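Q: Can I borrow your eye for a moment on a structure tokenisation matter? Would you mind producing a protein record, from residues through to fold? Write it directly below this note and I will take it from there.
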Amino acid sequence: MYLRRGDKRSNMENTSKERLFGMTPEEVAVICQSLDMPKYAAGQIVDWLYKKSILSIDDMTNVAVKYREALKEKYEVGLYPPSKMEESVDGTKKYLYQSGIKKFVEAAYIPDGERATLCVSSQVGCKMGCLFCMTGKQGFQGNLTAGEIVNQIHSLPERDKLTSVVYMGMGEPFDNLENVLRSIEILTAEWGYAWSPRRITVSTIGIIPAMKAFLERSQANLAVSLHSPFEEERRMLMPVEQVYPLPEMLKTIRSWDFGRQRRISFEYILFKKLNDTPRHVKELARLLNGMRCRINLIRFHPIPDTPLEGSDDQAVQDFKDALNRKDILTTVRASRGEDIWAACGLLSTISIAT
């Protein structure tokens, strides 16, 4: 299903104007000052950007016409709808967003009873090269701006139904730290969407300096891709282990006071006869002993050109039960959207861009 693309603002290839969407009140104030606009105009513009659904500067009806005309010479709102939607048999929807010339990202909308989650992307492709991830096989084409990240949420047809957002789509969020932090600021600030940071979870493979900055500058939840408690296995699955080893990453996490509300969770994809054994349960229990955390077990979704095979359902259940007996809260993440390649590890736009 293709959505309306007749509006010129949705064509990311046809504009060289700077986008207002994604700017902070301070940045908008600088623009207003440069155009000799009254100080209060900055607040009006910010309100239009984040509190209301507009596509054009002309829609800012409480801003004087002469100022709107001045703005339009160099700026545009910068919001654009998804260009394509696919729907899974389980109700998951995958939306395609354009990001520059021949560059695209995907976001997955996952309804679940009274809850609805959007899995957003932070980069076009990814440079981390994890063995189990289709996005990594795509390579890296660029970072999304804060506005492009938030646009996936703002322009979502089901936006009003969202209960949470997870930065678990295409890309490594902490490889695009500043834009990710700015997007979280827009989502949580009173001048933005005024969301609670508890509605937001950011996933990382463990880039330690950026993880520290995220913990210091944000109150959003943290999810860490673990996938093995043994360094040699993790290094085979995730090349980042060579630069930021597991012991150092866990030491950083343990040094941080997460409080009673902020969540720390570990993502663990189960691979047959590789990381689903009693030996792995024992080592996970040792490493995470005393840490207030959760492990989310994830079924592996096969991708081309990888030697990995997913654990069967019984092995997943046995692994979960064994960890819970060790007093580590462990759940199995439901596999959603696999038939439209929207499940964990399957997002990729390389075939669209070429």
Remarks:
- The chain is about 30% helix and 20% strand.
